[in-house]
Amino acid sequence: MSRKNFHDLLARYLEGKCTAEENETVEQWYKMLDDEKVGFTREELSSVENRLWTKISSQFKEIPDQPEATLPVYQFFAGKRSMVGRAAALAGFVVAISMLFFYSKQKNPDFNVAVKNESVVHFINKSATPEPIYLQDGSYVLLKPGSALTYPKHFARQKREVYLTGEGYFLISKNPARPFLVYNNNTITRVVGTSFIISSDAETHKTEVSVQTGRVIVTENIEENLIKTVLGKKAEVILTPNQKTTYNSEQQRFTTTLVAAPLPVLKHNETLNKADFVFNEAPVSTVLKALEKMYAIEIIAAKEVNEATFTGDINGMDLYSKLDLICQSIHAGYQISGTKIYINKSIN
Q1: Residues 37-53: pLDDT tens digits?
Q2: In 32-132, where does DSSP find H-type helix?
Q3: Which of its termini does the chain have fewer beta carbons within 10 Å around, N or C?
Q4: All domains of the chain, ordered by start, with CATH?
Q5: Which of 290, 263, 296, 264 has its CA nearest to residue 277?
């Protein structure tokens, strides 16, 4: 953790902009100073920062040339005496936990230990068009130009793992006994059988996961994050059709919303019935329920909106065009918040 990051964290703490985990970390640090009062003011920030940094730096030093470049390793300075007091040991443990909150190691697929083995494929799409990849279990990946996929020729019995760099569309064969995991630098996406898109950008430090069908669980790609493990607050997002999440590795935070162009969610062998989307003086509540079912998206409308009526044919339109037409006819407006759509009467 750099001195600048350390300063920024303390400043965010004063402004009330820290996450719960960061708040607890700062408060654990502050206890190391043995001050009688609780907390500190902006005027005391510089003094507290210097004292804390000196305290932490005096107990740890970085070990150079470690094989795991993503995980700086720290050790205690050796003291003159072999016995260390309980209070010092406890303070050291608090610091160790706090430092590991910021320095975490990425988790890789199990097959990576044999990456030089002929049983592992590393494919880079060097063409100008998406390249299809057919996996041993019947799953399918459409790999975007410039992207790469590392995968075993034969999956393990317990799980199916691949490593993605860049962007790919995944259509996964259903097998509840063997979950499918997609790793990248920032996240691990876990599915049983579904279709989704994963896109990562090294420059913005962001990874986006969009779901078309099924259910997907997305977690941070962090193997050792002791603060979050102890507190039970490791970031995780569950996505359903037409939802997407964006993970920012710098902020260690997920932002979840709807995809830009939601698609109809159809069950196996189900087709759309055009008659279901032709309305004649129908209550708007009935129209919205039909859209909720079609797109698997929750739509929340004000009472006066639900009680209005709508006449029209909304076949052949995307979801947002449908909503535009409905809202225009009843003088209402809609907004997207998270994974829900809210509709209210317009104020003239």
Answers
A1: 455 566 666 777 676 66
A2: 45-59, 86-102
A3: C
A4: 3-102 (no CATH), 110-257 (2.60.120.1440), 274-345 (3.55.50.30)
A5: 290
